[in-house]
Amino acid sequence: MPGKMMRKENLPTKTCAACGRPFAWRKKWARDWDNVRFCSDRCRGQKAGKGPGKG
Ligand SMILES: [Zn+2]
């Protein structure tokens, strides 16, 4: 059978802009996935300035 196997886990993934870890699509992001940049609210709440590197 030609074609690709469609797996249920075939979800899109992104890399968190705050912690740099990959994360997978979530239903709660269904309508906002394009704008999602962080793996969690915690990362989203991180402000530049504190932490490694110079802000
Ligand atoms: Zn993160």
Q: What is the string of helix and strand elements?
A: EEH
Fraction of residues in helices? under 10%
Quickly give the structural class. Answer: little secondary structure
Walk across the major sheet and give the strand order: 1-2
Total number of strands: 2
Strand content: 5-15%
Detailed description of the structure:
With 55 residues, the protein is mostly loops. It has a two-stranded antiparallel sheet. It has one helix at 41-44, and strands at residues 13-15, 22-24. It has one helix and two strands; from the N terminus they run E-E-H. The N and C termini lie far apart (54 Å). The protein has a domain at 13-40. Helix content is 7%, strand content 11%. Strand 1 and strand 2 (22-24) form a beta hairpin. The model has no long low-confidence stretch (mean pLDDT 84). Zinc ion (ZN) is lined by residues 16, 18-19, 21, 38-40, 43.
